[in-house]
Amino acid sequence: MLTLRLLPPLAAVAVVAFVAPLAAQDFAPHRAVYSVSTLERGKPGPSTSGTYAYELRLTCDGYVINQRLRLEAGGRAPVASEQQSQLSESRDGRKLKFEHRTAAGGRQVSLYKGEATIDDDGKGEARFSEPAGQSVGLPVGTLFPVGIARETVRLAKAGENGFDAKFFFGDKVKPPQSVNVLIGRVPKRLADIKTPAGGGEQLVEGRMRIYYRAGFFESGADSKAQGEPAYAMSSVTLDNGIELYGTHEENDAAIEYRITRLEPLPRPECK
Questions:
Q1: What does the pLDDT read at residue 207?
Q2: Engineered SS bond to 10: which of 149, 176, 251, 259, CB 3.0-4.6 Å?
Q3: Contact at 8 Å (CB) between 12 and 181?
């Protein structure tokens, strides 16, 4: 899953203390590339195009994510914008290192970097090294990107149709967002999404396809009661964590992305 703050596949969450139920759900290490286009009234529009690249690597201690979104806005003077994220999450879901950069026209416009940890009592803290000296508290039940994705798959396979939780990504000096997720059947228009040939076929054969929509609400805001999330997204993702299709909707802007390339990455040899 992608947001214009670049969430990893499946930014859906569940209310759990720590991530004990997540241990049974592992993901396939892989590299994927997606074509990106704007949506106008729910249909692809011509004004902006781009690419989204996502990589998930497994280590003996956890997961490493690298992702990059590049958009080209049309017009007389085309402008390129780019967002990059590097994330390292422990296998038990209790530690996250993050770095998020955005640039426009070749110039960096923002940088957020730091580390978040969850303590034994379920609460935690995120400390930022950029901007230096900043920190936010993490309430019980906060999940990080991979932990969120794994829990979403677990609940979808268990037949659950919706849930709420707290999510921390680290792209702003703000407390975790509240997320509301609805899991449903894959829409007919997305049921025949093709998976790219050329090396990744073994990653998709026989896998369950999961469809969900999620709304993200800023902490402490009263917009949730009014049905107005800060942004929303949808996704078609396999049960091994490989995303095939997604959308991101924020204010009056929206994009969609479809997978165009997929390749497996090696698993670590751990004792």
A1: 93
A2: 149
A3: yes
Ordered DSSP codes for 193-215: PPPPPSS-HHHHTTPPEEEEEEE
- Establish whether the linkage from the previous residue to 145 is cis, with ω within 30° of 0: no
CA 193 to chain centre: 20
Q: For the segment 147-187, what is each residue's pLDDT rounded down to a tens digit?
A: 888 888 999 999 999 888 899 999 999 999 999 888 999 99
Contact 53, 33 (CB under 8 A): yes
Q: Please enumerate in sequence order all residues whose Cβ is within 8 A of that of 156, keeping only pairs 6 or more positions apart, or say none.
A: 183, 208, 210, 212, 239
The most confident of 5-14, 193-202, 214-223, by mean pLDDT: 193-202
pLDDT at residue 146, as a whole number: 93
Name the residue ranges covered by the structural domains of the chain. 20-264
Tell me which residue of 62, 1, 51 sits closest to 27, measured CA to CA.
62
Contact in structure between 155 and 143 (CB atoms under 8 Å):
no
Question: Cα separation of 125 and 7, whole Å?
Answer: 20
